[in-house]
Amino acid sequence: MGTIIDIRDREQSRIKKRILSYMADPSLIARDGQKAHSIIIKGLKNAPVDERKRFFLVLSALAQDELSWIMLSIIQDNEADEELKDMAAMHLSVIGSFVSNQSLLIKRLNEIAYSDNKDAAERAILALGWEGNILGVPILIDFLHHHDPDLQTMAVISMCNLNDIRLFGILKDRLYAADLDQKRAILYNLWRFKGKEEEALTIYLEMLVDGDPVLRYDIIKALTELKIDSPRHIDIINKVMRTFLADPDADVRLCAVKGLLKRGEMTRDDALFVINDPSMEVKRIALSYLGKKKKANLF
């Protein structure tokens, strides 16, 4: 008689083989219906991260409709681990624009978002953020003013993922009435709106002057990502970052150093300025920068 472990191993092996058959021929998922969904979800719960990623990647390309309903089930599954549910929500936000019946998908996500299951609601709101999902905008705007700050933050991220420049003004207006966490989410995502880079820079500069000082780390992080071509604006960003090389907060100084380095704007003077910084991480970056430049005979 086999042990419980043997039985479980054989069952898992059987499930894995079945999932591989679904990946090879996604039409079998539609044929087997709910039975296929149950087998796939059960298998994914026990699968390592690399196998989960491979499964999502294959079906994201070959079977968006079938995968979307499986993902919906996963984000509501209380027995699924957080990583799997996060993975499902993120992939759903990518493939949503390729699903044939988007209206039905939005309807189901809307129902989950307004359910009593907060974890599922957060992921449903995130999943609504596929590019071009205009039908989901009213739902996201509603959650932008929700009493729960976590759901508000998810709405901000999702709205930014839509990549619709018309939403920039909505987020800008919300910024000034938002609580601290939502301000962080909005500030960090404004740089992602193509065509609004200069306006985003103006907002960041205003918030550094008139906003809550605790937001300076978040603004420097956002400025690091801001893609802008104007030499004058690039110079403004560099000057702002260099100002914070002397900030009393070590995390802010580190963020400024990393920002200059990532943007390719760090200079020898910057490195020498922070080389004796109390933060070992800041000091390490400065020494590494100087060492690489010396080795390349650039100094």
Q: Can you describe this structure?
A:
The protein is mainly α. It has a domain at 1-128. The chain has 18 helices and no strands. Helix 17 packs antiparallel against helix 18.
Mind sketching the topology for me?
Elements: H1 4-24, H2 27-32, H3 34-46, H4 49-62, H5 64-75, H6 82-95, H7 102-113, H8 118-127, H9 137-144, H10 149-161, H11 168-175, H12 180-190, H13 197-210, H14 216-225, H15 231-243, H16 250-262, H17 268-274, H18 280-295
Helix pairs in contact: 1-3, 4-6, 5-6, 6-8, 7-8, 8-10, 9-10, 10-12, 11-12, 12-14, 13-14, 14-16, 16-18, 17-18
Share in β-strands: under 5%
Mean pLDDT: 90
Percent range of helical residues: over 70%
Catalogue the unreliable spans: none
- Class computed from helices, strands and strand pairing: mainly alpha
Q: Characterize the quaternary organization of these chains.
A: single chain
- How far the N terminus sits from the C terminus, by CA atoms, comes to 74 Å
Global Rg: 24 Å
Shape: globular
- Major sheet description: none
Q: From N to C, what is the helix and strand string?
A: HHHHHHHHHHHHHHHHHH
Number of DSSP E strands: 0
Q: Helix count, per DSSP? A: 18
Please provide a brief summary of the model.
The protein is mainly α and 299 residues long. It has helices spanning 4-24, 27-32, 34-46, 49-62, 64-75, 82-95, 102-113, 118-127, 137-144, 149-161, 168-175, 180-190, 197-210, 216-225, 231-243, 250-262, 268-274, 280-295. The chain is globular, with a radius of gyration of 24 Å.
